[in-house]
Each structure stands twice: as C-alpha cells, then as structure tokens.
Write a sequence for this structure.
C-alpha cells in the first residue's frame, strides 16, 4: 500500500528543520568550532554562557545560555567603569587639596595644622608618566604576592605628595608647629573584593602597599638584596633571603608582624631578575600622613610632628570647617579616562572597588550600599536591565556578582553610542598586545591586535580534596573579524574542577584564558556565520 503525502506538508517540515538547525548552529562552521572548544578536555563539564552579536545591528551570531546568570569575575569592571563614566564624565579630574588650620606669621611659621583632604584619587600621582598619562605594567604590582611576573611602573609613587609638599613650601610656609593630618572621611571604609590590597579608603598612596623588591646576590650563599618602595621610616622590616643556585625555583614570603612591621623570608636563584612582593599597610591614612611629612621635610619645611605617629582623626575639625579652610596646595589628577586604562588594562581590583564610592560621594552618599544603588541607576540610563545582574562591589570578587551574557553585550553596545566610547574601548586590554591579554595568544595569531576585551578570573580551593575549582574565567568586549565585521561578545566559563596541574599555571586560569582566546580566533577567522533566527534555550 502506498502512503499519499501532501507535498506542501513536506516542504513545511523541511523548512522548520532547516530553521531549527540554523538556530542551534548545527552545521555552521563557527558554531562547530565553538562547540568543540567548549565541550573538549577539562571544560566538557563546565557551565558555559556565550553571546556573540553584530556590533552594528545587534543580531545574534551565536548564543548559549545567554539569559542565565554567570559569575563574571573581573568582567564586572566593564559595568563599574561604564557607570562611572555616565555619572562623572570622562573629563572628570580628582582634586586633592591641602588646607591649613591656623595662621602663618611673618617668618613663614604655621602655628597650627596642615590637613590633606583625601578625595579618592586612586593614584595621587603615583603612576604619572612624563607625558601626563598614567603608566601601567601588564602584571600589576598589586598582585605580586600571587605571581613572579609583577613589575613596578617607572614613576615616583609619591609624586602627588611631593607636588603638594613643594607647593606648600612655595606658598610661604617654612615651618609647621602643629600636626599633619589626613582627612579620610569622604566615604566609609569598605573591603575590596578579589586579590590584592583589601582596604578601600579615600586616600591611596602606592595602592596602600609597600613594594618589596628582592634581587639575588652575586653567588649562591650570598644574602639577597632587599629594598622597599617607597623608602620610608614609617615601616620596619627584617629581611633574610638567601641566594641559591641558578635554575632552582624561587620561594619568597612577606610575613606581617604587626602594624607597619613585616619580615621577608625565602630564597632567590643567581641571575634571576628582581622579584616583587608587597606588604599592605594597616592604616592608609596614617601611611599617607607619614609619607607626606617626609616629603614636606625633603622640600625644606620644618615639621614638628613625627612621621612615626598615627593619623589622629579625633583632632580633625568638622567637614564644613575643612571646606572653608584656606587651601595652600592642590594636586589635580589626569582625566578619568586615564584611570579607566589602569582599572581595565591590569584589572586593578582596589581602584575598581573605590570607583563606586567616589561616584556616590559626589552626591553626598558615603556607604557601599548607597554606591551600588547609584551604580544601578546609572546603568539604567544606559538601557541595562539591572534585574539581570547583581553586584556586591566594583571589582568582581564578591559572591553577589552575577551577570547574563546577553546583558553584558547590551552594555557594550550601549557604550558604543556614547561620545566617550573611544576612551572606554581603548582602555581595554588588547589581545596579544597588553594588559591581562598580553600573553593570551601567540605572536603570530591572526586575531592578535583585533580584540579589545576585559578578562576575569576567580578560583577557590576545595577543602576536601585540595584541588582548585576555577569558578569563573570570562572575557567580554569588542572584535573586528578578518572580513571587517564588528562583533560584540561575552564569554563566561564557570565551575571548572582543575584536576591537571601545571607548574606554571597551577590554578588553570591561564589555560582557560587561552581557551577563550581560541574562541576569539574562531570568530575572527569566520567568513560564513549568519545571524541566528531565534534565541536557542538549550543547556550544556
């Protein structure tokens, strides 16, 4: 018996199958390559969220779990910096004044106090290059205790304090009989999230750390050479580091012993380039006060107060009195767009944690809760649905930090419509060139230089087995493909148990980063991808 089938029904079914296949990406070369990268090796059981769209039209090129929430790690900083730009504007500059309480007599003696009024400047001149831009190294000193690649920028970390001290002397003040104080009441202290320095304060000098630079001696058995930056009497340290034979792995620790005291222990091989470690200061305001006194003295101002003392906050007048006090010196920062380069290029956690509080302070608000609520309002102005995101801070290390891939691309496309987009985009790391993407691809990668994106990494240690769980590796930003097409993308890789350890990458973060970079290479090379016709809602 022959079955009679309506030809029109067959055509309809075939059309539906074709549309479904295209929507899922099956048979599409880009989709196949991305699927392979996401489902192979140690990443097969991970949770993936991906959204790739045409930058001009917003049409979806590829998506997976695009409306599920993922831990973004430092991709959070894309939202933090965007909100700061909306509120402050790219031309915003921090202005840090020094005021006096008391009168200056005819001999240049201030019979009273000098007060540095902290305004949340994350650098206060410490990264200032000769051309007025802020300098950065691909491996920032803030994370020196977790790697061997950190290096210091070639700039005076106390440049802002030195400027203030010089202007104080030029104002006619030759001697200060009272105290030197730091007013750090701009906002309430908070905790930074993620690695690096933890104390968020309105005053930041050298990221509120002392850099410990350790160089080997000439021969095995010699004591290593240890110096601190900045060189100050405000901290005391004991260093016992041995020079060992060439080829042996270095092992170095900075061990806090109490307020402004630490010891340095370990070993460093002959011929090894200097290694940087850091010591975070206990009280940023007292640290700034001590360094300011030392710079005042170096500029010829006689100061009765000792740099070994602490910042006496109870001696500060009320804030209205501070506002009305005579200004004797002021330091003005480069524009905010320069600070964004530091935050985004090297993923500076302390600075990113500070930015929301700086924004809130401009509106008379002082707490982190108020700062995050204001950030939400600013993100709404960009068209971001804040019901699809959650943040517990500005840096990306909070357990509250969650975003969807789709919303991340919405943010990135919204920034493209702003007049300050060029500054925002150019502040991002460039694949294979600088910042946290400097080493993500080889020098001959075809995608090198064609991707500007923010990275993110977060991992924890499993107490049961001791293994590392890479809770988040992420990458989101802008790309120009080989065919000249502009894309916006967001890649989120969550929950990867790292079972294979490598000596140079024990947490698996670099390996995962290279996997995301390969996804960029696949997108860059693709010539055939067409927009998907519907939003797939399939799982992994």
């Amino acid at each position: 018996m022959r079955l009679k089938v309506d030809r029109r029904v067959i055509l309809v079914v075939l059309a539906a199958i074709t549309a479904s296949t295209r929507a899922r990406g099956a048979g599409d070369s880009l989709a196949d390559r991305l699927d392979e990268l996401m489902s192979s090796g140690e990443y097969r059981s991970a949770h993936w969220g991906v959204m790739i769209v045409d930058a001009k039209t917003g049409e979806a090129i590829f998506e997976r779990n695009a409306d599920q929430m993922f831990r973004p790690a430092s991709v959070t900083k894309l939202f933090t910096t965007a909100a700061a730009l909306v509120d402050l504007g790219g031309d915003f500059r921090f202005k840090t004044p020094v005021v006096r309480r008391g009168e200056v007599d005819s001999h240049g003696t201030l019979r009273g106090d000098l007060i540095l009024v902290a305004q949340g400047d994350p650098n206060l001149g410490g990264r200032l290059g000769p051309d007025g831009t802020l300098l950065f190294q691909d491996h920032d000193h803030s994370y020196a205790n977790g790697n061997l690649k950190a290096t210091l920028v070639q700039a005076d970390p106390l440049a802002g304090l030195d400027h203030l001290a010089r202007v104080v002397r030029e104002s006619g003040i030759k001697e200060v009989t009272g105290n030197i104080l730091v007013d750090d009441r701009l906002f309430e202290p908070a905790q930074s999230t993620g690695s690096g320095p933890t104390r968020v304060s309105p005053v930041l000098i050298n990221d509120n750390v002392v850099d410990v630079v350790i160089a080997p001696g000439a021969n095995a058995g010699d004591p290593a050479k240890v110096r601190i930056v900045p060189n100050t009497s405000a901290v005391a340290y004991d260093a016992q580091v041995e020079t060992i034979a060439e080829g042996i792995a270095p092992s170095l620790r900075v061990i806090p012993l109490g307020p402004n005291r630490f010891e340095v222990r370990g070993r460093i091989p002959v011929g090894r380039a200097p290694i940087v470690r850091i010591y975070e200061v206990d009280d940023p305001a007292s640290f700034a006060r001590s360094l300011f006194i030392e710079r005042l003295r170096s500029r010829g101002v006689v100061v009765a107060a000792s740099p070994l003392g602490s910042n006496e906050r109870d001696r500060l007048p009320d804030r209205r009195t501070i506002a009305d006090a005579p200004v004797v010196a002021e330091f003005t920062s480069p524009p905010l767009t320069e600070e964004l380069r530091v935050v985004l290029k090297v993923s500076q956690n302390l600075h990113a944690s500070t930015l929301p509080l700086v924004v809130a302070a401009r509106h008379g608000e002082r707490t982190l809760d108020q700062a995050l609520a204001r950030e939400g309002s600013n993100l709404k102005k960009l068209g971001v649905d804040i019901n699809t995101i959650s943040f517990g801070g500005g840096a990306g290390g909070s357990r509250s930090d969650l975003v969807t891939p789709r919303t991340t691309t919405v943010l990135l496309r919204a920034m493209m419509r702003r007049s300050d987009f060029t500054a925002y985009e150019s502040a991002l790391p460039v694949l294979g060139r600088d910042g946290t993407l400097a080493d993500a691809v080889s020098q001959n990668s075809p995608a090198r230089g064609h991707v500007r994106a923010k990275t993110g990494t977060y991992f924890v240690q499993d107490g049961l087995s001791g293994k590392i769980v890479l809770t988040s590796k992420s990458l989101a930003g802008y790309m120009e493909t080989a065919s000249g097409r502009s894309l916006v993308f967001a890649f989120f890789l969550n929950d990867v148990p790292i079972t294979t350890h490598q000596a140079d990458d024990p947490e698996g973060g670099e390996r995962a980063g290279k996997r995301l970079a390969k996804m960029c290479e696949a997108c860059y090379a693709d010539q055939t991808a067409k927009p998907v016709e519907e939003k797939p809602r399939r799982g992994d």
